[in-house]
Amino acid sequence: RDMRSTTGNNSLFRKLAVAVSFAWVNIVAWHLSNNGQDLLGDPTTAISWLSFMADGGMSSGVGLVTTDGMWEESPGDKYKDQDIKILGFTDKNYLPIARVWYNRLTLLGYTEHHIVAHDEHSYNALSSDDFRVIPCFIKNPDYAHPVKGLWQQIMSARLHLTMDLLRNGTHLLITDVDNIFSRHVPLYGFLEEGYDVYHAYEMRYPTFIYDQFGFVICSGHQFLRSSPEAIRFMDVVMKSCSGKKCDDQVTYNKVFFRELNIKWDNIDNPNHAGALRVNTTHPENNNLLVESVTGRSLLTNHTVKIWDRDFAWRLAGAIPEYCPSMNNWLGMPTKLDDAMTGDGNKVYKKIAAFGIWDKHCRIERD
Questions:
Q1: In angstroms, rounded to a whole number, what is the distance separating the alpha carbons of residues 344 and 270?
Q2: Partners of 135 in the β-ladder
Q3: What is d(CA 185, CA 187) in angstroms, rounded to the nearest whole number?
Q4: Rounded to an integer, what distance in angstroms lies between the CA atom of residue 361 and that of residue 359?
Q5: Pairing of the two strands 170-175 and 180-181
Q6: Under a CB-based contact definition with an 8 Å cutoff, are residues 260 and 283 in contact?
Q7: Which 8-state DSSP code applies to residue 273?
Q8: DSSP string, 118-157
Q9: What is the 3-state secondary structure (H, E, C) of 10-67?
Q10: Is the pTM value of this prediction over 0.90?
């Protein structure tokens, strides 16, 4: 599939070119602050922004140049009364990353992004710096068990908040704060395109689902329309996460593959013999599906789209060799080599990933 041909203003798209110092300035600020708790919120001295016109000849490390998100015209006032929010989630441990994520989206031109704070410390710190912040506090946080305890509490709270807002009429882009946005994609386009729920491809987790079905979806980046059909879908999800702890990645995939009974458009199964795949010897990335697919659930009647991997990029390592095209919307890099990130804890490395992404997958692809 080739990149869509456009003319005039439709041939314009925005590219983010961020100076390599972006991440490192924030890392220095993080080290100088109270263990990252009070990272400065103003990144304007660390970031340089450029816009330019595409001249063609585009390529993608995953083998397909996406056309997702390349809206050709503005809908005018059609969606002016629609409430659309981007939600990124944090507790006090991820607060430095949340600040970097929020400021990046602001400078890309987004105005609908909010940080959901899971503790009072995060909420107060963000509110005092005029971030748009939504409280969603965890009662009795289980800090003694960071994965089976606190993390699963946060994932459960995230699902419950998602459902509440959908029922209130808000369309949602649910995303992780360590996801690295590359360009501004107007969110009205997903309403115009018309699907109820949009997913990104994950890699192989949960492995018991991947081994059976050949692909999995990502709970850390999805768009949900506030429609009766999408709410029925979330009802099914919530029944699988009825308590105060759950792994949302496992929950979404168990529902997606075992309950939704999706009828795919023009194919029997996305994991068919002729499907485009990542071509690499890397054990975690090899044979991962690449191309967008659409369908409808026979259980809930909601329509589904899984984005191209070039649009919503998720691989282990693979930078710079498998960087996406300049049409990419965001990267979800993981397991970057210490030689790239430098030594440090988890927060340090996730902040460093922003600069690595920009240097290798944006600037050097120009």
A1: 39
A2: 117
A3: 6
A4: 6
A5: unpaired
A6: no
A7: T
A8: SSHHHHHHHHHTT--EEE-PPSS--TTSIIIIIIHHHHHH
A9: HHEECCCCCCCHHHHHHHHHHHHCCCCCCCCCCCCCCCCCCCEECCCCCCCCCCCCCC
A10: no
Query: How far, in Å, CA of 53 to CA of 347, rounded?
Result: 35
Query: Quick one: which of 27, 18, 353 has its CA closest to 183?
Result: 18
Which residue pairs from 284-289 have beta carbons closer than 8 angstroms and sit at least 24 positions apart in sequence? 284/203, 284/204, 284/315, 284/316, 284/335, 285/203, 285/315, 285/316, 285/317, 285/318, 285/322, 288/201, 288/203, 288/204, 288/215, 288/315, 289/201, 289/214, 289/215
CA–CA separation, 273 vs 198, rounded Å?
A: 24
Q: Give per-residue burial for 178-192: e unless 16+ CB within 10 Å, then b.
A: bbbbbbbbbbbbbbe
CA distance to 54, 56, 75, 194, 312, per residue, from 6 (Å): 11, 11, 17, 22, 22
Q: How many helices (H) and strands (E) does the chain have?
A: 10, 14
Return the structure tokens found at 86.
Answer: 């981007």
Q: What pLDDT tens digit does each residue of the chain (366 aa) get? A: 433 333 333 333 333 333 333 444 444 444 434 444 443 333 332 333 333 323 345 899 999 999 999 987 778 789 989 999 999 999 999 999 999 999 999 999 999 999 999 999 999 999 999 999 999 999 888 888 888 888 889 888 999 999 999 999 999 999 999 999 999 999 999 999 999 999 999 999 999 999 999 999 999 999 999 999 999 999 999 999 877 788 999 999 999 999 999 999 999 999 999 999 999 999 999 999 999 999 999 999 999 999 999 999 999 999 999 999 999 999 999 999 999 999 999 999 999 999 999 999 998 776
Distance, in Å, from the CA atom of 79 to the CA atom of 72, rounded to the nearest integer, reads 16
Residue that the structure tokens 């699907």 belong to: 195
